[in-house]
Amino acid sequence: MRNGQPTRILLADDHALVRRGVRLILDREPDFRVVAEAADGAEAVARARDVDVDLAVLDVAMPRLTGLQAAREMSRRSPGLRILMLSMYDNDQYFFEALRAGASGYVLKSVADRDLVAACRAAVRDEPFIYPDAYTSLMREYVQRAARGERLPDSVLTGRESEVVKLIAEGCSSRQIAALLVISVKTVERHRANVLQKLGMRDRTQLTRYAIRTGLIEP
């Protein structure tokens, strides 16, 4: 609790059944209260802006904006908001992307009944939560990079480019993307051209495969 009040939680997942299950886990705890839900990343960002929340629990893979993209936007707008990523993917890339996006923890859906409450409480205390199986990968990655004097690499694409790729892969036209992101059609086309050049690709089909491979959309 914060100041004797339950932690106010925003829960975002595009599967209503998953949201219901996660909410049941959280609502059993007297120090938590789910005050808002969202079915995609863009809705989650909007809800975080309109409702007072202390903690956002975001699914990694969601329509319109992924959980990672939503986390980046929330972190930028509300630096004090705590964020946890909820994922079905036991994947180093997603784990490190979550940390870069501003999340303080990464919880696997398969063990949410075991880990989620502890992860939420750690986030409220401003402490990181790392699911047990990730410790080995995390330590190996950082030790190896530190030994070489390296840092974790930035994503190949910028945050805005990733948003454009995601929407292209979901079948949106340039005009629709421009409306969703509140940018011009010309800017959308420029982002698309830059992405194709960066990735060495030619068309929407290749971009869609890239979006699936990197978790921007689900197959």
UniProtKB/TrEMBL annotation:
A GO MF term: DNA binding
Response regulatory domain boundaries: 8-124
4-aspartylphosphate: modified positions: 59
This protein's name: Two component transcriptional regulator, LuxR family
Protein keywords: DNA-binding, Phosphoprotein, Transcription, Transcription regulation
Family annotation (PROSITE patterns): HTH_LUXR_1, HTH_LUXR_2, RESPONSE_REGULATORY
SUPFAM superfamilies: C-terminal effector domain of the bipartite response regulators, CheY-like
